[in-house]
Write a structure and sequence with these properties.
Elements (H helix, E strand, L loop, with lengths): L8 H9 L14 H5 L46 H16 L1 H7 L11 H21 L7
């Protein structure tokens, strides 16, 4: 494969649908119109398990064990923020993202809410940092100067 750098997902999706490129990694929300029109085919999702956002699409991990590339959002606070404040913000945010009203708005955008605890989020950030640092080092990828 040859990597082609695009200035965003839309131009690469247009080129994929137009046959100028053969493969692209796109977020699920951008695909339904192209899939329904028969312009592109979804080969796999980047989650370890099937997602309710695309139940008929297998995870890449079914073919390539352990493959997972997720986008995520999180709330951060100053280092010395009291634990009771952190717990209250976490509880409020969890309740909000799991509410029926919020689910109605975020699912069509391709967002599956997966709230966690502050400790689990810290663990996730550390694991992601380790994972991507190792990959960059092994591939000898360095920042542009």
């Amino acid at each position: 494969m040859v990597h082609v750098a695009y200035k965003g997902g839309t131009p690469s999706l247009v080129d994929l649908a137009g046959g100028q490129i053969q493969l692209s990694c796109q977020p699920l929300p951008s695909l339904p119109l192209y899939v329904k029109a028969g312009r592109v085919r979804t080969l796999g999702v980047r989650t370890l398990q099937r997602t309710r956002l695309a139940l008929d699409v297998p995870p890449i991990a079914e073919t390539l064990a352990g493959f997972e590339v997720l986008g995520w959002h999180g709330l951060l606070a100053l280092l010395n923020t009291p634990k009771d404040i952190i717990a209250k913000v976490n509880a409020t945010a969890t309740k909000a993202v799991l509410s029926a009203d919020m689910q109605e708005h975020i699912l069509p955008l391709g967002v599956e809410a997966a709230p966690s605890t502050p400790a689990a989020f810290t663990t996730r950030i550390r694991a992601e940092t380790t994972k991507w640092s190792k990959l960059l080092k092994e591939a000898n990828i360095r920042p542009a100067e």
